[in-house]
Amino acid sequence: MDKPGVRSIRRRDLLRLTATVAVGVAAVAAYPGAGAPSKDDRGKRRSQYQANSPEVLTFYRVNRYPTR
Q: What is the domain partition of the chain in residue ranges?
């Protein structure tokens, strides 16, 4: 059944490999600098509107609750 030169992977070796990869992935994900935004990403998360623009002021002026 076993042919010379052909090596099979045992279940225990497969489990050990899977655990090693999982620990490595967790270590890379926990590294503090891994998820830090670059200078290019910071500009994308800024607000895309101006709070004092005429359109925004008109929106809030028109959609206010009526005064009593």
A: 11-62
